[in-house]
Specification:
binds 5-amino-5-deoxy-1-O-phosphono-D-mannitol, 7-stranded antiparallel sheet, single chain, 8-stranded antiparallel sheet, Glutamine Phosphoribosylpyrophosphate, subunit 1, domain 1, 598 residues
């Protein structure tokens, strides 16, 4: 879970643009960082432990026409200067950065050592650079040498390599993301498009198993076929994202900015309902009599559960939701005629990608709902749609959750009635208006709740029906950024065990349905926990009267769109609690935005 970037240009001076690209990638990991700059006849390498700013900010370095960089999240080898990337060859003339994990590198490292190579780190990555060095010494060109080195290793990689003897960056990818950015007299590479938005909006997307040479003048792509390199032609694609979306825009944290963006994204989705028609029709006709499995992880899994509800209630379709990492063990029944619908913000989550590969191997068709343009999931899917939420930088998913839910609502509605576009547009516009009008007030109320719960050791979230996954999402948000232990439960299930955890003052946050029959049931659940000392907070429609210690009143249009409206105060409670506790909500400990390892 690391980020890599590279720039090669005709004019000198790549450092500041390279550091900006790396900072845009810090959500992928930030325990150490480094760059290698080509100074014509030699390479300059600077690396260390800490964030980009800590390692490279304010450091005066010689600048050049080409450079590569890395922001690391340790997997093989501890966090140390030696293990930080770039890694260099014995003669210091080749430098390489890598995202991914390699199999079988230990044996190769011993063989290389026996042949006289000196290793400076404990990483798997360093093996690649020594193998490339050997290839070049044997007379291979850099791309053939890189390709041969990688063919000796298993696992996953996105690598970028420079040498003191060339103006080109050599890159390769397999099961880890890598995009190529196109400039004028300069070209770039990075782990994702967001990293390079300050430089370009034109991208070439590499497929697994491809390699490329990136020079200031152009790019060349190859694919390994039967041990040989075959040339590939591929055009550039323009992405809609703009660089301003990578800034905090006056907010203290990206997470807060992204929470406040939600009504605007919902309005955009309302205006573009038509965009989802073709995908919905394709999904409907692919399905026929087969199974529909929704596959996702984390927050996207919760959105997927709400999607299952929509498919059942709105479209009358049977589906199942499978945790991506569990998919291999829970999908033995899937095969030809079945469909997998993957939901992922990044489109790079390793568990999701592995599930998709297995589904394809078993003959199932794959459709996906994604946020990041050009991501691996889009390349592996028969068809995909974007949730149009723009780049999400905060590690905690917020705006992408509500956008995923809204898109699933659109798709389920269109699958059952292809003429539902106008109604959907009106529904989403109203939800957008209602959130927009109450955002500031909700934030204030959430801040007050945060002050009340911030010293708690545990918190429980209860929901029913469509808001059972909303409760799971509320708990996930709170635990991942405040580090308070939080669990979400189906309100009716709570009495089957978890009720034993209630003691004096434990916060129980209940997400209240809009439908009367369900409200009556959850009132009973609230009374149960209150009788045992719980401090109850209800996130509820304004008109309902409830046995609760604290109420957050939310304007909810109806049961179907309620998860979107309710997600907002739950996100705000998590945000304010983290801030009250002095945590950085954008970078929670131990977590990275894209989980690219299984
Ligand atoms: O990019 P994806 O949607 O596939 O990511 C899945 C999870 O890793 C992600 O939702 C994670 O749970 C978030 N940090 C939750 O806020």
């Amino acid at each position: 879970m690391c980020g890599i970037a590279g720039i090669t240009r005709r004019r000198a001076g790549v450092l500041s643009d390279l550091l900006k690209a790396l900072k845009n990638l810090e959500y992928r990991g930030y325990d150490s960082a480094g760059v290698a700059i080509s100074l014509g006849s030699r390479l300059l390498v600077r690396k260390g432990v800490g964030t980009i700013d800590q390692v490279l900010g304010g450091v005066s370095l010689e600048d050049g026409r080409m450079g590569i960089g890395h922001t690391r999240w340790a997997t093989h080898g501890g966090v140390s200067v030696e293990n930080a990337h770039p890694h260099t060859s014995c003669d210091g003339r080749i430098a390489l950065v890598h995202n991914g994990t390699l199999d079988g590198f230990e044996r190769l490292r011993e063989e290389l050592r026996a042949r006289g190579h000196v290793f400076k780190s404990d990483t798997d990555t360093e093996v690649i650079v020594h193998l490339v060095e050997e290839g070049i010494e044997e007379g291979l060109d850099p791309i053939s040498s890189l390709s041969r080195a990688l063919s000796e290793l298993g696992g996953s990689y996105a690598v970028a390599m420079i040498s003191a003897d060339s103006d080109s960056i050599f890159v390769a990818r397999y099961k880890s993301p890598l995009v190529i950015g196109i400039g004028n007299g300069e070209n770039y590479c990075a782990s994702d498009v967001a990293a390079l938005l300050h430089l370009t909006r034109e991208f070439v997307f590499l497929e697994d198993g491809e390699l490329a040479e990136i020079s200031p003048e152009g790019i060349r792509i190859w694919r390994m076929v039967g041990g040989k390199l075959e040339s590939v032609n591929r055009g550039a694609e323009r992405v809609e994202w703009v660089p301003q979306q990578m800034e905090k825009g006056g907010y203290e944290h990206f997470m807060m900015k992204e929470i406040f963006e939600q009504p605007h994204i919902l309005r955009k989705l309302a205006e573009t309902v038509e965009y989802y028609v073709k995908f919905s029709e394709g999904l409907r006709s692919a399905l026929k009599d087969g199974w529909l499995s929704i596959v996702a992880a984390g927050t996207s899994l919760h959105a997927g559960m709400i999607g299952k509800y929509y498919l059942s209630r709105v479209s009358g379709l049977r589906s199942e939701v499978v945790i991506a990492s569990e998919f291999p063990e829970w999908s033995h029944h899937l095969g030809k005629g079945d469909v997998v619908l993957a939901v992922s913000q990044s489109g790079e989550t390793a568990d999701v990608l592995e599930a998709i590969r297995i589904a394809r191997d078993r003959g199932a068709r794959v459709f996906s709902i994604v946020n990041v343009p050009g991501s691996t999931l889009t390349r592996l899917s028969e068809d995909y749609v974007f949730i149009q939420a723009g780049p999400e930088i905060g590690v905690a998913a917020t705006k992408t959750f509500t956008a995923q839910v809204a898109v699933l609502y659109i798709i389920a509605s269109l699958m059952s009635d292809s003429d539902s576009g106008v109604r959907l547009m009106r529904d989403l516009e109203v939800v957008s208006e209602e959130i927009l009008g109450s955002m500031e007030g909700l934030s204030e109320e959430a801040r007050n709740v945060a002050k009340l719960i911030r010293m708690s050791k545990h918190a429980f979230f209860l929901g029913r029906g469509i808001n059972y996954p909303t409760a799971l999402e509320g708990a996930l948000k709170l635990k991942e950024i405040s580090y308070i232990h939080a669990e979400g439960y189906a309100a009716g299930e709570y009495k089957h065990g978890p009720l034993a955890l209630i003691e004096e003052g434990v916060p129980v946050i209940a997400v209240i349905p809009t439908e009367e029959a369900l409200v009556n049931k959850i009132i009973y659940n609230l009374m149960e926990v209150r009788a045992r000392g719980a401090f109850t907070i209800t996130v509820q429609p304004p008109e309902v009267s409830l046995p609760s210690d604290r109420e957050i009143r939310v304007r909810v249009r109806d049961e179907l769109t309620s998860p979107i409206a309710y997600a907002v105060p739950l996100q705000l409670i998590a945000y304010h609690t983290a801030v009250e506790l002095g945590r950085n909500p954008d970078k929670p400990r131990n977590l990275a935005k894209s989980v690219t390892v299984e």
